[in-house]
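Known limitations

Structure tokens in this collection are predictions and should be treated as such. Users comparing against experimental data should check residue numbering before alignment. To illustrate the layout, the record for Protein Mis18-alpha is reproduced below. The input appears on top and the generated tokens appear beneath it.
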Amino acid sequence: MAGVRALRCSRGCAGGCECGDKGKGSDSSLLGKRLSEDSSRHQLLQKWASMWSSMSEEASVADTEKARLEEAGAAEERPLVFLCCGCRRPLGDSLSWVASQEDTNCILLRCVSCNVSVDKEQKLSKREKENGCVLETLYCAGCSLNLGYVYRCTPKNLDYKRDLFCLSVEAIESYVLGSSEKQIVSEDKELFNLESRVEIEKSLTQMEDVLKALQMKLWEAESKLSFATCKS
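Generated tokens:
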């Protein structure tokens, strides 16, 4: 009688055949394994890229901060130029800096420019804790603004101030040498001071005198020409 039918594959082969259907199952399993490996590799690459991006951003921030600190340090090393707040003439710079006095609101310099004139009339200091100090008043050579004092004689405890120039902070302005973004004279302040106005008015008066002299010579020449014409 008929026995148990052998299992056949889709092509009609008996069970245990070596046809290609068995290979298809193996290929499907291998493909799934490769896809899984590719997915894991892709996730690993994404994680590595994220870490690299984060490290790059941190390095960029660190470089920016380092550059900012270096720029700030360079700005601090640049010398200050002190100007008269009345006419903007240079009075000195921080290369001759000695100290600052917060109690008297002034700075002490070893030397000043030729724009600082010294009144030779000496007087005793009336400031607290400066008994016995002999001072000479400092003025701006351009606008005669009172700038401060120079110490000529001092008691023993104030010997470090002797022959130092004490400039009042209220009478001076300053800017950092080499800072192109800063203006020495602000736009809202008047550019011409009293001295420059006097010089301009003097020049205009001289020009007016020259014009009058030329007009007089022209009038004389016209008179002579007219007289010669009438005579002929």
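For this record: Strands lie at 80-84, 90-93, 97-101, 106-109, 116-124, 134-140, 146-153, 165-168, 172-176. The chain is about 40% helix and 20% strand. Please report discrepancies through the issue tracker.
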